[in-house]
Amino acid sequence: MNKKTSEVLRLLKREYPNTRCGLNYKTPFQLLVAAILSAQTTDKKVNEITEGLFEEYPTVDDFLLLTGEELEEKIKQIGLYRNKSKHVLLMCRQLKEQFNGEVPNTLEDLMSLAGVGRKTANVVLSNVFGIPAIAIDTHVFRVSNRIGLANAKNVLDTEMQLQKAIDKDLWSLSHRLLVTHGRRCCYARNPNCTDCIIREYCNYYKSAITSGSTLS
User: Has 86 been annotated as catalytic?
Assistant: First the structure.
């Protein structure tokens, strides 16, 4: 890991010492459901929905008692709720039929489930099973490419580049730090460069200064 990457992670860890998964859950299954629901939706909104949902339907078997229409009604406050309802219920059937009702612990098996892409699978691997992974959500993609930890035009290339740039035992922590920094400082619009703890290492900041752009 080069000096810049090491220093960026050190500063972010100092700035956000208690960073954690933004989704609330008690079991691997609940995190899997929450992660599916979180696509194009904030963790805050998902947590609002799942608080009552998981209390009433905590397990795979409980979810399988729901019809599609019933689940839609319970999650309709989040985006794409109809598709997400279909995916979640199909995923539950797959868990029962193919994995004895247990959440699998490999990337390939997780991605075989309905509604589970690479990002969701990595979130589960990292937070449930302690397997090093870098889940590339919009925050990680934006922040890592702005800083210069990656230089990629898509999420898969970003993940591959970050895996090479960061020591494997820091992958999961790095994901959480970059997500937190994206939420609290490195916004999609008008990033708060003035108060950014890593701005001296950031390609975006250096480019803005060089071009004479006004920074917040």
Answer: no
Catalytic member of 3, 13, 44, 119: 119
Catalytic site includes residue 168: no
pTM: 0.90
Taking the domains of the chain in order of start, what are their residue ranges?
Answer: 3-18+135-211, 28-129
Assigned superfamily of 28-129:
Hypothetical protein; domain 2 (1.10.340.30)
Question: Into which CATH architecture does domain 3-18+135-211 fall?
Answer: Orthogonal Bundle (1.10)
pLDDT one-digit tens code per residue, 164-214: 999 999 999 999 999 999 999 999 999 999 999 999 999 999 998 777 665
Is residue 67 a contact partner of residue 61, using CB atoms and an 8 Å limit?
Answer: no
The one catalytic residue among 4, 44, 62, 137: 137
- CA dist., res. 48 & res. 78, Å (int): 10
Q: Which of 65, 47, 54 is closest to 29 using CA atoms?
A: 54
